[in-house]
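Lab channel / #folding
Pinned by the channel admin:
"Please post every new chain as: sequence first, then the structure tokens as a reply. Keep commentary short and put observations after the output so the thread stays searchable."

First post following the new format, from NK:
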Amino acid sequence: KGFRRIRLTGKELLEHSYWDTPSGREQAAKWKELLDRHSCLLFDSSGLPPEGEAVGPGLHKRRERVAASCGALLKALLESGAESTLLVVGGDTLLGCMAKLGVAEVEPLCELETGTVMSRFVRDGKTYHMLTKSGGFGQETLLADIAKKIRKT
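Reply from TO:
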């Protein structure tokens, strides 16, 4: 459907400061260049081993770490000049992203699809647009349908 999919690794998702390391910053810069060349880039955070197969934090802690890491990646992309409409799936992920970005307010603008809201937020004097969606529901073609709507605007 035109999306480039990047599966984030356990290291990228669970290490608190990965995106602040030289290798993390280098990876984010490569993905920013990829984003400049492709209209739709999807970061898949489902690449963790099942809880029982991994040594490390419990499920709640893993969710917090994944959300914070996604926020840190988003921050790195925005700070490198990414100019895209964002889509954040899941309330925990949204809270983690907004915390890492230092954003306390998101202004809803309209509902594009059932349960999928276009909003905006301001960070460092710049306005960004973001779609938010709860996880776990929506038709199979939802992401493609939304991308088509955004491209028309």
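NK: The longest strand covers residues 116-123.
TO: also worth noting, The CA atoms of residues 83 and 128 lie 8 Å apart.
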